Amino acid sequence: MNYCKALEKQGKVILDFTNGEPDFDTPKYIKSAAVKALNDGKTGYASIVGVEELRKAISKKLFSENNLNYNPDEILITNGVTHGIFLAVMSFLNEGDEILLPDPGYTVYPEIAKFAGAIIKAYRLKRENGFQIDISELQKNITSKTKMIALISPNNPIGSVIKKETLAKLAKLTKNKEILILSDEVYEKITYDGNKHHSIAEIKGMRDKTILLNGFSKSYAMTGWRLGYIAAPSHYIEPMMRLNSITTSGVNHFIQWAGIDAFEKEKDECNIMRNEYKKRRDYIISEICKIDKLSCLKPEGAFYIFVNIQDTGLSSEDFVKYIIDVASVALVPGSAFGEGGEGYVRFCYAKPISEISEALKRIAEAIKKLNINN
Ligand code: PLP
Hints:
By secondary structure, the protein is of the alpha/beta class. It contains 12 helices and 13 strands.
């Protein structure tokens, strides 16, 4: 990113596909709700657990959309899902405890786990398995010290959606073990081709072992609002609420009122954005197939393409450096998401098709030059 900024200072126009955020503005009805809340004086501290009306709205949403029963006391409002990850990992992992993390997977998890002094064990999501979890491999990583398994579905950076059968197998695997499941569902509403998102909390016996994390950033184009939530049995909410109290004193008050309207007054906004992402995904996949030495699997959700660059002979870092220097297109090296990401780059397609098309043209040209020079 710094390198990108330095090039821009030199006058280069960089097409930046590194950010994992919608290019849509937050829907108007949500912005209006925040303005109304401000004008209504929702400007003092909110309750540490979060505004009760929002927790009730989330409880209703979890029931109607996910078939999950959480009462409002089992919900904690957080400063985005990132903060939810922090609260859960810091509250339940001690030094030396083991956490199983998906590799490739969202970069924040290993950083927070390290901060807690936990030992990270990666479970690989491999291309040959369609980037799905290999249960027998995951099982090999479970020891007496395993305290937590993180699931990210749909996954960032690879866009895979964990199948319900896999969740059932995971439930069986952890049945008599004291292992907490951290279920990151932030891309829940961004899935394609009938790949419906399922929470592991839906599986019999799992609700009481699951810390469900979700938020508004991706589905409602609200990254800058910093609004998320945790749903979990109240004995898990309690320590996280205490940590929330001493780290943030709660989430911005008026923003929480906008969160209520996000759910309750939604018409078709999430679907419209999702359909647009799907168009872009289909476009980018068809175009990448035409570029020499690049390939990718069709992501089932989120808004990233994990492009296989192994045939270029470059490492993912070197490829990213080459493409930014030669094509002025910024991508994220797959190695940033774990060892399993080496040989790939992440391309976020939450951008207009015109920009995606220009970037792909430039990348294709740059690869042609690479072929000539080699
Ligand atoms: N979880 C995953 C898997 C993500 O990819 C991201 C952001 O990229 C987050 C959580 C962060 O979400 P939030 O903006 O709600 O903190």
